[in-house]
Predict the 3D structure of the following.
Amino acid sequence: MGFILNPLYNIVSGVIVFIHKLLTPVFGANSGVTWSLSIVGLVILIRIILIPLFVKQIKSQRALTALQPHMKEIQKKYKDDRQKQSEEMMKLYKEHKTNPLASCFPILAQAPIFFALFTVLNGIAAKTPEGVSAPIARGFLKGEYLDSAAQATFFGAKISQSFLGSTDTTVKIVTVLLIIFMSATTFTTQRQLMVKGMPKMDASNNMMLQQQKIMLYLFPVIFAISGVNFPVGVLIYWSTTNLWTWGQQYYVIKRNPTPGSPAYEELQRKRAHKEKLEGKNHDGIDQNEATEPEVQGQREQPKKKKKKKK
Amino acid sequence: MRKILTALVRAYQVATTNIAPRCKYYPSCSNYAITAIGRYGVKGLAMATWRIVRCNPWSQGGVDYVDAHLDCADVKNAIYDNEKEVVGAN
């Protein structure tokens, strides 16, 4: 396993140490803020790398509108045979070289990074059997960095400590708060998608609502069970990535919603409304647009210029 | 071993039901893994891993069974119809 994991330790610890170096002049080398933001920075970097994949997926989802009639046909034809229905649907996507689904690899590829972060942070918290702290260096997190990271705190809780591994009340409070935050962001993300982001469906909608209700109660439990074992630093990573997911989805639902979803209809309404307004005060809008070239020095001409371009 | 792996995959499925379906293939990577591990053990695990690698943003997905001649809908329907006929004959 070592030959797979060591490069991952290097990447994770390398990124953290690098961001730590960048932030040291601002917050100080031993500040908990610096170390916490280093973990947040790692998340942001990973999620930025994943943005093109996200955009690609959104684009292929949009391309789906054209296939809508075919899809309806398939649903009708094989309405009693779900397996055949799914098969035909996949064949249709392949035929048209578009697939609205995200694919499994990127999300599973994140798991080793998560695991590596977990190990690196656990190494910081390592103790000898006698209870004396003996941090284990992994990757680039060694020497003075290791000592500094071992002392770093997030709202008073050491980032290397976990709920179960510590007797410190502050650690317990911070982990519980982070777990609540994680559950809340996951639930809101889910709810946002359910209520606004998805095309209206007939039969499956009910089932999904049901699932969502189960999840509302199941998620805090899952997070609580796993969260109490994780160091605060890992919980920071998890919370940040959840928050990012929420923000990304919020942006897409607001600005570029899936055709057929409630959010899409809302946007259409807004645009129609705006066009109406534009139609009414067309001159006003034109003047507004015309003010832009004014910066270049011409005060009276821009309106005419625009017409010429057309 | 097979039971442990299958339980892990099931746990993954339960944990991700809330996330909109994401697999580009039918059956999904996780279902594929369960079938493959159940049938082929370690070789099945390798098959499942390869399937996940194939399920990347540049792939087109599609229908991809562990054993098409055993699993696809037409075969299953044919078996089902046969059973019905037998029952009818009785």
Summary: The mean pLDDT of chain A is 79. The beta strands of chain A are 153-154, 157-158.
